[in-house]
Amino acid sequence: QCAAVCPTGALVENDATWDVVKALGDPEKTVIVQTAPSVRAALGEEFGLEPGTLVTGKMVAALRGLGFDKVFDTDFGADLTIMEEASEFLDRLTRHLDGDTSVKLPILTSCCPAWVNFFEHNFSDLLDVPSTSKSPMQMFSAVVKNVYAQELGVDRKNLVVVSVMPCLAKKYEASRDEFSIGNDYDTDIVLSTRELAKLIKQYNIEFNLLKDEEFDNPLGESTGASIIFGRTGGVIEAALRTAADWYTKEDLQDIDYTQVRGFEGVRSADVKIGDLELKIGIAHGLGEARKLLEEVRAGKSAYHAIEIMACKGGCIGGGGQPYHHGNTAILKKRTEALKTEDESKKIRKSHENPYIIKLYKEYFGEPLSHRSHELLHTKYFKKHKI
Ligand code: SF4
């Protein structure tokens, strides 16, 4: 399964559970954990629960039981990613519509590290096409190490950020040099969903008997938009919810962009926001992505924006999730779980997350500001063809 989804070279699952145990046992360290959106929709399967059982509250309780000092949510990072990515999209789109021929469209989402590695190797002539926004995991970790550390009064060297991810390629992403200061990486340890389950079992925590608990704040606050990052079409739908409000300057109520949802490997959706008629492409699976990228390379792409995720179904089908053996019914149940969580949220647009608003007011100023470019954006590198 991993070889099918991890063209990054992260083909072997390096078990990081012992690194977490050591960090939790070190009295000098403050250990913070963040959990990706799709983990809560699949972790329960490792404890005999039906696929599609949402275990958000039990997962938080288990992490607290393991001894993490703060239990936060990568979804907060996803909301932050949307702030930057939707801004980039609108900036490029409006300049393009104003006749600026230097602007590249479509914009490509860039939160999947397997996909980033794929285009660095195979489409290195298109490095200026993807969004430069970091992934939710890396934005979250950058904020923790550079902003939250100051609030806590803890030296970043004594802060350990552990990420629980559906993904083996996230281990590789965390180790990229651009996400570190010397040997001090923003994300210290990445656990897969399966590794978290293993740790919970090793600590003899009766997962199914746990009472639901809430994430810590402020970095545990998130919106429905961030939850749907976990499934194919979700990143672009989340971006549309924000871009549409900003473009129309309205608080739009019709925010379910069902056109971008679905399971076909490549999908095309027409979306109208205000007077704009947008064409959105969605691909899951790198073979499918290649088709869309060949069109971009040939200058024949009709799309304004394209979402690409390496795994079938998006992150709910990631290589670090409980094994699904290619069973699409399981992936669809996990997708439904994320839909339920999205619809249950009072706030479903990233730019309305109160803690995100506060973070911009107190630290970043505006999206795409100098400070956000420093902490929340990245660059890509030309690599040999594979
Ligand atoms: Fe990882 Fe998600 Fe990309 Fe799969 S789709 S490689 S789980 S980020």
UniProtKB/TrEMBL annotation:
GO MF entries: 2 iron, 2 sulfur cluster binding; 4 iron, 4 sulfur cluster binding; ferredoxin hydrogenase activity; iron ion binding
TM helices/strands, residue ranges: none
Phylogenetic lineage: Bacteria, Fusobacteriati, Fusobacteriota, Fusobacteriia, Fusobacteriales
Name of the protein in question: Hydrogenase, Fe-only
Residues of the full protein shown: 202 to 587 of 587
Alphabetized UniProt keyword annotations: 2Fe-2S, 4Fe-4S, Iron, Iron-sulfur, Metal-binding, Oxidoreductase, Repeat
Domain of life: Bacteria
